Amino acid sequence: MGASFVHQLDLKTNFLRMLIKHSASALLSFLCITPFLLLSQAGLGAELNVTRNQLPVALGLYLDHYEDPSRLLTISDILGNGVTWERSQESIPTLGFSDSAHWFNINITSDDLAGKELVLSADSPNIDLIQFYIIRGDQSVESYETGDTVPFSRQKARFRNPVLPFEMSASGNTTQVFMRVTSQSGMELPLTLSTVQELALQEQTKIAFFGGLFVFFILCFCICWIIYFSLRDKQFLGYTMFFGSSLIFFLCLSGMGKVWFWGESVELSNRLNYISGTIMIISFCLLGQSLNLENRYRGRALIVLRFIAYSMIPTGLYFIVLPFDQISGSNLQAVMLLGLFVAIIVFIMAGIAAAQGSKVALYLFCTWSLLIIAYVSMLGYKLNIVEKTEPATLIGELLVISAAIMLLFALAEFVRSKNQEFALVHAETKAKGDFLRNVSREFLTPVHLILANSKRLLNAHPLELDTATHEHMTTVITQSSHLHHLINDLLEMAEIESDNFEPEFEQVEITHLLNETKEMMMPAALEKRLSFDTDYSSANLLLQTDKSRLQHVLLNLLTNAIKFTEKGKIEIGYKAVYYQRKLGIEIFVSDTGIGMSEEFKQKIFQEFSHEDGFSEINPTSTGLGMVIVKRIVEKLGGEITFESSKGRGSEFFIRLPLRVSKL
User: Fold this and answer.
1) Comparing C-alpha atoms, which of 371, 376, 354 is closest to residue 407?
2) Could you give phi then psi for residue 216, rounded to 5 degrees?
3) Where is 246: in which H helix or E strand?
4) Domain span including residue 31
5) Secondary structure of residue 225 in the 3-state scheme
6) Is residue 110 part of a domain?
7) Which residues, listed in sequence order, are joined to residue 67 by a DSSP beta bridge?
């Protein structure tokens, strides 16, 4: 039994010895052969055998890649040096911001597509330059350049994307394609092989989509610009800048700007892309500053937003004046991170304001949520953190469109709330006007009685009154007269501002009206020994206006002119002009009086405004006359302006259309 056991043990030992020997031999053979296999594979490059039914086909996973940090290698160096290629592991090779040149290589073979015209297209319009090199079986090299910095006149196929049309080699031969890619604005290469017909069909669909997108942004921009031009509100300036910069940004990002506008430009697309980004950041800051919220950190946030907004101005100028080849990815990366920082700040501010009950802020909160998602996803593959996927661009565009729609909702809500506030203010103003009119009428009767009886008493018994009583009566008459004028002016203002005020338009001979007004004011001018001249530069014109209201305006202006002129002349006249692109008339009233200071000229049309020292010259003035004049002229469809200098007199201009519809 012991001998049997020893025999079995010898058999097992021999078996293990043979197994170890053969394993060592196989491992040695593998280690010797593997380097040759790797070198052989590195020289061959990636290979794809494609059939007609497979088209279009994405080539990302079939590409070999080599990075050239020096950007000095040529196609001869690539073919002769035997560089070590790395197989792409991404369906869309995503390399982020890179200052290197990147080489890609693929071998394409086909049996049923031999000799056919095919197209290599990179759905990335922002790539600065792609240099294609095609090597066929006879080792002949064909070169071709395309990209955002290549004018259309030098491109074989004028698409918004870099496109290479080429002819497949004969059956059994290999078409080897090398690509050298450089780009400042990020490196993503969604490369596709298809036919010209399939590419054209895809582009038609995308161009229709982009066309609708651009029309949408243009309409939004125009609406916001008109509202801002009317209201001069900072928030609408932010909306306007956002939609304007988004329009330019998408024109550059989609490549349609090059197709439609700047096809021969080498640098404009990239520069506009960078500048629109800085303008968009400014719009973020303006929209953040317009948010109304109660928070102890709001002041600090506004200071930060204001500083960033102002800092974007030199940044934009930097992208304008800096030589194009000196703009690097690190510059763009800093601006993009700053934009993300601003978006997060405004997002937080909008969230706080929305929590406090602001509907506008609620829409803005949704807007910033969508924008931040789109922004972070774009920043992710721009910084080479994540791989760019095929639907990433479409999803990003849809997110931005959704954000723009939410921004329009915020704009509509803001306009609605403002209209509600205006309606409330109008109702309050109307109630105050009605109250003022009723109370003024109640005051007018006793004031009129006091004034009339005081004058009667003073005139009836002038000799029976002692000096003190006479002075008291004179003071009563003076103050009662001032109060009487004030009440009349208040009643007139209330009437003008009421909804029931309607000018009674009629045909008026302007020369006759001015002569009639002159005759009414001539005694007052002669009393101060002032000359009263007229200057009618045009033939007699028929003016459609409210005669009594216009004459009231002229009498007010002439009264002031005579009152504040001690020597010299008063002049009234008119001439035909174009007003609001229609035939109109300009009536002027000038004097050589004391004129107005610069300070008073800024507030002459404000209620109860007086020139310094004016009360000594005219203590009974109410400070409402020029306000009434301006509002009557506006009700008549015109405008009033003036020129004046201290010590040299004043001149007022009333411009009216000759024909108006009833207001």
Assistant:
1) 371
2) -60, -45
3) helix 234-254
4) 7-43
5) helix
6) yes
7) 102
Averages of pLDDT over runs of 10 residues in the chain (663 residues) are 41 44 42 37 61 88 91 87 85 87 90 85 88 78 87 84 86 85 86 89 86 88 88 84 90 87 86 90 90 84 91 90 80 85 89 87 87 84 77 80 85 82 76 66 67 72 71 74 67 66 85 90 88 84 87 88 89 89 89 87 80 57 78 88 88 89 51
One domain for residues 258 and 327: yes
Dist CA 365 CA 348 (whole Å): 8
Q: Can you give the pLDDT at residue 482?
A: 64
Looking at residue 153, what DSSP letter applies?
Answer: G
Q: What pTM did the predictor assign?
A: 0.63
What the block records as the tokens of 357 is 């009950």
Same domain, 157 and 224: no
C-beta of residue 174 within 8 angstroms of C-beta of residue 108: yes
Residues in the chain: 663
Q: Are 281 and 287 in contact (CB under 8 A)?
A: no
State whether 273 and 403 are in the same domain. Answer: yes
One-letter identity of residue 505: F
Q: Identify the pLDDT of residue 484.
A: 65
Work out the burial of residue 239: count CB atoms within 10 Å of its CB; fewer than 13 is exposed, 13-18 middle, 19 or more buried.
buried
Number of separate domains in the chain: 4
Domain annotation covers residue 72: yes
The dihedral sign for the CA sequence 303, 309, 313, 315: positive
In the chain, the amino acid numbered 317 is L
Count of alpha carbons within 13 Å of 442, Cβ hemisphere only? 6
Are 419 and 517 part of one and the same domain? no
DSSP per-residue string spanning 298-361 = HHHHHHHHHHHHHHHHHHHHHHHHS-GGG--HHHHHHHHHHHHHHHHHHHHHHHHHHHTT-HHH
CATH of the domain at 593: 3.30.565.10
